[in-house]
Amino acid sequence: MVGLGNEYLTKVQDPNFAKDWVKSNVQCYLPATKITAIFVGNEVLTFNDSSLTNNLLPAMESVHSAVTDLNLDKQVTVTTTHSLAVLESSYPPSAGIFRKDLIPVITPILNFHVKINSPFLINAYPYFAYKGDPKQIPLEFVLFQSNQGIVDPDTNLHYDNMLFAQIDAVYSALTAVGYKKLSVHISETGWPSKGDEDEAGATPENAKKYNGNLLKIISQKKGTPMRPSCDLNIYVFALFNENMKPGPTSERNYGLFKPDGTPVYSLGITKSSSTSSSSGNSSGSGSGGYSPISSGYFPSSSNSSSAGYLSISSAPVPDKERLILVKMMMVTLLMFFIGLL
Prior knowledge:
Layout: E1 2-4, H1 15-25, E2 37-42, H2 50-69, E3 77-83, E4 87-89, E5 97-98, H3 103-116, E6 120-123, H4 126-132, H5 139-142, E7 150-151, E8 158-159, H6 162-176, E9 184-189, H7 204-219, E10 234-236, H8 273-278, H9 303-312, H10 334-340
Parallel strand pairs: 1-2, 2-3, 3-6, 6-9, 9-10
Antiparallel strand pairs: 4-5, 7-8
Helix pairs in contact: 1-2, 2-3, 7-10
Family: Belongs to the glycosyl hydrolase 17 family.
GO biological process, one term: carbohydrate metabolic process
Protein name: glucan endo-1,3-beta-D-glucosidase
């Protein structure tokens, strides 16, 4: 997927600008690069910036028109990414609902998704929930390791990892506003290999466990407890560490690789010359947030944590470094990865 930054939301509403942007950032790389989607804006709705919010849907519509005019709409869809903080509640998963103040602006966006058949994208990071309350949340629960898990009291569904609980909370929120059939993709998830003293769990060992176990789960080709027949579509953040990124130490250490191409930790993945020339990292925060909820393994509030990392998303990135999220979904490489773990 290729992302169009928040700083372009006003400009891209100009049809000529939108078409030129798509030509320069998408069309010229086809078909050599498999590009399936453009996401317009990153975590816009949780900035609580009315100007950004009001410009989001018109920008998405303008980019979709450009894609259609260039006859790319059969292979490239248009969407946007959201922080998990668009949810007012996420525990238990069956009680997931959108923030009431966002429903008037998110509903037209959901209509747009249905109209053009594009997925709803969420940045989901169990790491931030664990970092917020490491004494309450079992590390095994967030790292896909053996644990007793939790049971949703309303559905009796059992969850043995937090990511699946977060995904199903999003499905519940969509169902609550009448969009039960809309597909959900995880546009970002990951775990930092290094952090500050107050960033619990940010170690190479935990990052390896999170991403390695995630690959294994995806290879099982099963969905979440609430959507067992729906394929998981998950993007890992990030390919490279980003040494110039602002914020806490963790923000610069989500990469699978160091800038020189050597692995931060071994997942059995090697960097090819084509990867180094055609792939980049996200200009977003790499920290999709989590919503305040009342009980369970989840923290009681996200405000103290989310405000810091969500603000990082506004940092502009030069157009040439505009993000191409590296899709770690293992359509062609998964079994290779798993065999080397």
